[in-house]
């Protein structure tokens, strides 16, 4: 094919002065509709009928309150693993028709799965006479068929790209009827019932059309695809223009390129193509001063391509692109040759006001701005592809996207077994690339999430095929947990082993990293779904659900909390559990940043996940709003392009020890850091500097594990139990860690006036009757509550989805102002020093205590059960005063500074005049905690799902 430049200014000018193609007909507005519950519309030719009921489109049926009320027998799209709700007597009141509330996911006001027919009368203008007519439906859900009058336009089933229809028949000017059949039922094609493209777990299996709905004329020639491939090395782009048919000789093509968010522009250029072809490929120089796209400088260009023949302008198409190269070198990603580290979240199509992803740019701009304020530069879309607006907003924000096909082929379907999904995913992936491939933010792609079946050879072929088809992106077979096979020809890996905290088995420390999980890989390794640490529900969130989805799950949890006499503690539970959650995220993210060959992480997730039993794993709620216990600034201190780090062997010390820490910094700011003025400080609770020092302030290169020096501070200046804060400053970046220091003393506490016992024996009973003081160290003796397992880490994902897999608690709420803690520094939540006295300790269930009784140390139960729990409480018993502790303080050794100090603080309190319990509890109620008898505990009732 030969290309002949047209350099005459007049011709270039005249091409861009020609009349633009005839405008589109916007189909938004009033439509009539009819539900096809029995699926008879095709057989009865409903396209020939008129419908009575009306609806405004774009929207979904449930947006307008159309469909059936959810019931116990509603056939949902999604797995229900924990069927306890259906059989638990305590949930009976929530299974009634008029008060239905279940914990699985948000409840739609109406539910409809099946075919629905939509119809609208239109006027075809005279100037469309003899034109082919096109119809675009941006995001229908999900299988469509269309007619103009009785002329059939075909069918589409893409969950990712617009449905494009072409009516080649001669539709005469005048009045016509457009009929669209939308079917959201799983029929021959199943992408997986838990796929976030269709599942009720998140967006819900809604029926309708959202986004652009337009009818437009098509001239003889139409640009079906405009594919832009930037080449930074050659300083040009290749524009591939794919037409609807072979072009005749001498078709003219004009190209205009302007900076979209900057001033750089190119002179318009025009070409004549002399050969007959339907694919035209043009290389256009970008000049020496073109601007690149990255997270640091998201410079964008707009390209407009116009085709014209002797009859005038035939078609024009615009696209956004960026001059960027997203590449791999060894085990790391690079953008335009600069190393980067991915700090991402997983977006699961959680949009609680609508139940489907927005198609407007402003909504996505807000989300990305929030992500960046929390230090993120990356987003993975879990088993779905977002609309065009998400790409445009990410382009402008400088966010790297991992897009996935609309499939989680595990629970109701499998890959590689000859099912329709095998062919569909190949076709759908091509549609995704062809539709969104020009966007510079679209950097990475996977087939989808955690497949089953003969998926290895299938995905090896998938990777190989699309790597060749689309060299602008990097591909991985699937995003998976640890038990899935690695697809060996993947460009990068998204997998779960490099994550987690081993606090269940060892004392918290931050010298560890995940290099043992990544060293055996020779390509970038990105942590899959990191975090998943739960927090207690925020019931203030309920009022935000003003759309068709209601937080009936939250209402159930709130009512259940009230039934257990703790409604007044809901906010305190949220805040205390939230502090622990944030601490876990900090520890895990910092370990990732300390791992040399880990290319990044994807949280699950920065915001809450509405389904799978309600997974409250976000530091933000489902609306992307802060919950109050960690701010964007605080989170960004340990999750950013530059993060100071320390390697501390522990967080708790005696004052005869030395605080030692190795200091390093991770730098992915895009350039070396100069004049960093690195230093450290040790502060007390008033933020007064106790000790400080300077660190290596030489230029800090891009990358991880940049060592800045060591900290060595003898702690003998600390004379009483104290909480201190270690801060490290590198330029404008600061990170901090809490440590706790306890006096090393062998002096025994005075227990002469306290009877210390392991059981409420005869002597203890007698002392209480006589008005004495008793300390019951009940560790190992608890019966009512022994089924509740507590670790320092909170619930993972949620106890419902994993059928009460431990741990069962989400943190500890403490009466931190109580005088029992006068000699034991603590906050209102269980910070890291509590590991020694909380991890794997016994818990007491206070279900038989008076409704208003509150313990001093209160573990926060899973919100599915809301049991009132304790590890330390006090009470008047008879004439005496009793302190009951299920923490193991009886056999404390010198290697347990926290336990020793807590024991000392309890004894000092019991010896003081402050020891005045507010509540009087009978001995029978307390004894019940230690009685061996049959009790009602969590029961799965059945093994199968309902």
Brief overview, please?
It is built from 14 helices and 49 strands. With 946 residues, the chain is of the alpha+beta class.
What can you see in these coordinates?
- The protein is an alpha+beta fold.
- The protein contains 14 helices and 49 strands.
- The chain has a 9-stranded parallel beta sheet with strand order 28-27-26-25-24-33-31-30-29. Strands 4-3-7-12-9-10 form a 6-stranded antiparallel beta sheet, with no helix packed on it. The protein has a 5-stranded antiparallel beta sheet with strand order 1-17-16-19-20, with helices on one face.
- It starts with a strand and ends in an 18-residue tail after the last helix.
- Residues 1-21 have low confidence and may be disordered.
């Amino acid at each position: 094919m030969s290309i002949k430049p047209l350099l005459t200014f007049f011709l270039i000018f005249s091409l861009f002065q020609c009349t633009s193609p005839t405008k589109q007909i916007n189909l938004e507005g009033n439509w009539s509709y009819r539900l096809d519950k029995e699926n008879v519309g095709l057989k009865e030719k409903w396209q020939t009928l008129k419908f009575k009921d009306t609806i405004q489109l774009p929207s979904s049926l449930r947006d307008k309150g159309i469909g059936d009320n959810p019931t116990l027998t509603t056939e949902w799209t999604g797995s229900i693993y924990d069927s306890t709700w259906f059989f638990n007597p305590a949930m009976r009141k929530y299974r009634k028709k008029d008060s239905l509330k279940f914990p699985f996911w948000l409840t739609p006001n109406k539910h409809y799965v099946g075919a629905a027919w939509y119809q609208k009368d239109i006027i075809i203008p005279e100037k469309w006479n003899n034109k082919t007519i096109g119809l675009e439906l941006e995001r229908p859900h999900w299988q469509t068929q269309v007619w103009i009058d009785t002329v059939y336009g075909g069918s589409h089933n893409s969950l990712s790209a617009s449905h494009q229809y072409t009516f080649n028949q001669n539709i005469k000017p005048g009045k016509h009827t457009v009929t669209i059949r939308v079917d959201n039922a799983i029929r021959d094609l199943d992408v997986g019932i838990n796929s976030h493209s269709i599942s009720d777990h998140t967006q819900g299996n809604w029926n309708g059309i959202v986004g652009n709905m337009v009818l437009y004329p098509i001239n003889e020639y139409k640009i079906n695809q405009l594919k832009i491939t930037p080449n930074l090395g050659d300083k040009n782009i290749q524009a591939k223009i794919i037409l609807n048919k072979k072009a005749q000789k001498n078709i003219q093509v004009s190209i205009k390129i302007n900076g979209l968010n900057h001033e750089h522009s190119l002179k318009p250029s025009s070409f004549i193509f002399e050969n007959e072809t339907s694919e035209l490929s043009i290389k256009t120089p970008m000049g020496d001063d073109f601007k690149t796209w990255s997270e640091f400088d998201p410079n964008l260009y707009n390209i407009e391509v116009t085709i014209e023949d002797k009859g005038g302008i035939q078609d024009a198409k615009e696209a956004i692109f960026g001059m960027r190269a997203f590449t791999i070198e060894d085990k790391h990603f690079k953008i335009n040759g600069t190393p980067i580290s991915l700090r991402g979240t997983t977006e699961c199509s959680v949009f609680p006001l609508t139940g489907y992803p927005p198609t407007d740019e402003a909504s996505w701009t807000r989300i990305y701005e929030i992500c960046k304020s929390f230090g993120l530069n990356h987003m993975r879309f879990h088993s779905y592809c977002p609309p065009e607006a998400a790409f445009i907003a990410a382009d402008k924000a400088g966010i790297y996207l991992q897009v996935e096909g609309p499939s989680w082929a595990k629970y109701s379907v499998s890959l590689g077994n000859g099912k329709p999904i095998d062919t569909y995913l190949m076709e759908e992936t091509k549609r995704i690339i062809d539709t969104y491939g020009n966007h510079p933010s679209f950097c990475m792609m996977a087939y989808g999430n955690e497949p089953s079946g003969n998926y290895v050879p299938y995905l090896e072929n998938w990777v190989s095929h699309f790597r060749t088809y689309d060299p602008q992106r990097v591909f991985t077979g699937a995003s998976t947990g640890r038990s899935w096979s690695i697809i060996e020809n993947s460009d990068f890996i998204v997998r779960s082993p490099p994550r987690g905290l081993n606090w269940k088995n060892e004392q918290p420390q931050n010298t560890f990293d995940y290099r043992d999980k990544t060293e055996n890989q020779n390509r970038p390794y990105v942590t899959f779904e990191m975090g998943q640490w739960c927090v207690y529900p925020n019931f203030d969130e309920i009022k935000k659900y003003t759309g068709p989805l209601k937080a009936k799950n939250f209402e159930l949890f709130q009512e259940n909390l009230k039934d257990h006499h703790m409604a007044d503690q809901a906010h305190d539970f949220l805040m205390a559990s939230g502090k622990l959650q944030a601490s876990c995220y900090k520890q895990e993210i910092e370990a990732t940043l300390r791992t040399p060959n880990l290319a990044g992480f994807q949280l699950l997730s920065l915001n809450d996940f509405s389904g799978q039993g309600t997974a409250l794993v976000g530091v933000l709620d489902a609306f992307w709003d802060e919950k109050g216990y960690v701010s964007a600034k605080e989170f960004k201190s340990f999750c950013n392009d530059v993060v100071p780090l320390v390697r501390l062997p522990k967080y708790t010390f005696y004052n005869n020890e030395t605080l030692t820490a190795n200091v390093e910094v991770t730098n992915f700011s895009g350039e070396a850091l100069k004049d960093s003025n690195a230093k450290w400080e040790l502060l007390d609770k008033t933020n007064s500097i106790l000790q400080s020092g300077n660190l290596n302030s030489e230029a800090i290169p891009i990358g991880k594990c940049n060592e800045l020096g060591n900290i060595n501070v003898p702690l003998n200046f600390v004379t009483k139990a104290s909480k201190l804060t270690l801060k490290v400053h590198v330029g404008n970046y600061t990170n901090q860690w809490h440590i706790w220091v306890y006096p090393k003393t062998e002096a025994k506490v005075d227990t002469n006036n306290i009877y210390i016992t392991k059981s409420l024996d005869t002597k203890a009973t007698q002392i209480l009757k006589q008005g004495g003081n008793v300390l019951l160290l009940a560790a190992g003796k608890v019966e009512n509550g022994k089924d509740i397992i507590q670790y320092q880490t909170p619930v993972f994902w949620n106890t419902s989805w994993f059928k009460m897999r431990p741990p069962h608690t989400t943190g500890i709420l403490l009466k931190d102002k109580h005088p029992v803690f006068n000699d034991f520094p603590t906050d209102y939540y269980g910070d890291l020093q509590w590991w020694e006295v909380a991890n794997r300790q016994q818990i007491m269930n206070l279900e038989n205590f008076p409704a208003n009784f509150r313990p001093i140390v209160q573990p926060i139960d899973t919100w599915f059960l809301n049991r009132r729990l304790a590890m330390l409480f006090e009470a008047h018993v008879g004439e005496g005063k009793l302190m009951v502790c299920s923490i193991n303080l009886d056999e404390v050794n010198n290697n347990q500074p926290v336990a020793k100090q807590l024991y000392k603080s309890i004894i000092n309190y019991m010896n003081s005049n402050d020891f005045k319990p507010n509540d009087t509890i009978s001995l029978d109620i307390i004894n019940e905690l230690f009685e061996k008898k049959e009790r009602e505990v969590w029961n799965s009732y059945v093994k199968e799902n309902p």
